[in-house]
């Protein structure tokens, strides 16, 4: 058997979207969850990322037993399609009770709502057979710094994580950091913050991170170095690969679409550090362009997976002996040129004038 990592891929049903943005309504018709589940395997995906209400729509208005019944149906649909749930994330940013944040709201009743909702997400996760709970702390931050006590807010986030760990001793909490949007500033903006929270928690072995490319770029950081930091702590539970063209709204572009070299380095750091060998998923969190017509609703998913695999091939065919030699010579100009040629699939050639290596030889004579 090959000792190369066999990567598994996942995405969330929200990634097949109808194209609404803050300036205009939906432009494509919706598909049901069951229809979406039918496309995973043909597209090459076996993992499904869920928000709690992707599994059980309108769960706030349902009794416990109704929630469990619907979650069991979705669990059965997953098995029927040969799929597994990767995680469940409580949606703590939609309900009016989360306007001022979930765990960090200034209102005790609203904080309680966020905790109750998170516990329901764990109940749902159990029924669809995943131990993994993702916390994207969407509204845990501020628009106006004076509006909240940030130190108290950190303590409240930590208390919430500990409460979840205590509610079910088999769950894992994966924190997905993001620096802004919808907030001006979020309280857990980078993977460093998430990992600090993990170590501070009641059970550090059950708290880790999920890194999204676009979120790292929005923080002004290099996504592959963020991944390396988490890997160095053995705390990279999953990734949301996508892309982001500079500092603007969270674009969730297809993987590699804005910065192919950065995408190569993300694949490189994952591959070199054995990510995926314990069953971790290559998760995508990509948004379909609003211009796309109905029948191309899955193009961004197929393309992102394809470009991950092309870049994996680039990583696996990198001339590491040459790289080692260039590093030993501290010849980073040539290391960079080699990397670009490798990505372009070309070999060195002289256009006009001499190639740098020839100039160097000439200078020695
Ligand atoms: C926001 C995100 C979210 C999270 C998802 C899982 C809607 O920028 O990336 O996607 O990934 O909520 O928690
Ligand atoms: Mg994400």
Textual characterization of the structure:
By secondary structure, the chain is an alpha/beta fold. The chain folds into two domains: 8-317, Alpha-Beta Barrel (TIM Barrel); 320-365, no CATH class. Helix content is 43%, strand content 12%. The protein contains 13 helices and ten strands. It has helices at residues 33-43, 52-55, 64-80, 108-127, 150-167, 191-200, 213-218, 223-232, 260-272, 299-316, 320-328, 332-344, 356-364, and strands spanning 8-11, 47-51, 84-89, 132-136, 141-142, 172-176, 185-186, 207-212, 236-241, 281-284. It has an eight-stranded parallel beta sheet with strand order 3-2-1-10-9-8-6-4. The chain has a two-stranded antiparallel ribbon with strand order 5-7. Strand 1 (8-11), helix 1 and strand 2 form a beta-alpha-beta unit. Helix 11 (320-328) runs antiparallel to helix 12. The longest helix has 20 residues, at 108-127. The radius of gyration is 22 Å and the shape is globular. 39% of the residues are buried. The site of 3-O-methylfructose in linear form (3MF) has 11 residues, from strand 4.
């Amino acid at each position: 058997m090959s000792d190369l990592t066999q990567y598994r891929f996942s995405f969330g049903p929200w990634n097949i979207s109808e194209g609404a943005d803050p300036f205009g309504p939906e432009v494509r018709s919706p598909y049901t969850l069951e229809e979406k589940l039918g496309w995973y395997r043909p597209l090459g995906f076996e993992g499904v990322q869920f928000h709690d209400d992707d599994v059980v729509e309108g769960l706030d208005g349902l009794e416990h037993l109704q929630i469990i019944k619907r979650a069991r149906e979705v669990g059965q649909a997953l098995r029927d399609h040969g799929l597994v749930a990767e995680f469940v994330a409580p949606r703590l940013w939609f309900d009016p009770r989360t306007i001022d944040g979930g765990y960090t709201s200034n209102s005790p009743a609203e904080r309680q709502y966020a905790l109750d909702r998170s516990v329901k997400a764990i109940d749902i996760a159990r029924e669809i057979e995943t131990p993994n709970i993702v916390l994207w702390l969407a509204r845990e931050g501020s628009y106006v710094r004076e509006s909240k006590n940030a130190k108290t807010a950190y303590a409240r986030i930590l208390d919430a994580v500990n409460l979840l760990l205590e509610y079910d001793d088999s769950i894992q909490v994966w924190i997905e950091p993001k620096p802004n949007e919808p907030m001006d500033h979020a309280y857990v903006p980078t993977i460093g913050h998430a990992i600090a929270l993990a170590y501070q928690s009641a059970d550090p072995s059950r708290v880790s991170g999920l890194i999204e490319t676009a979120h790292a770029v929005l923080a002004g950081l290099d996504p592959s170095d963020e991944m390396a930091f988490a890997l160095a702590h053995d705390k990279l539970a999953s990734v949301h690969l996508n892309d982001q063209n500079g500092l603007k709204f969270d674009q969730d572009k297809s993987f590699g679409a804005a910065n192919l070299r950065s995408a190569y380095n993300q694949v490189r750091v994952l591959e070199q550090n054995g990510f995926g060998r314990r069953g971790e998923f290559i998760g995508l969190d990509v948004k379909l362009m609003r211009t796309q017509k109905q029948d191309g609703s899955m193009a961004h998913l197929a393309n992102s997976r394809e470009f991950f695999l092309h870049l994996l091939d680039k990583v696996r065919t990198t001339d590491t002996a040459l790289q080692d030699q260039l590093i030993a010579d501290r010849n980073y100009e040539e290391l960079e040129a080699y990397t670009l040629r490798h990505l372009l699939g070309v070999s060195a050639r002289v256009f006009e004038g001499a190639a740098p290596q020839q100039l160097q030889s000439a200078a020695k004579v």
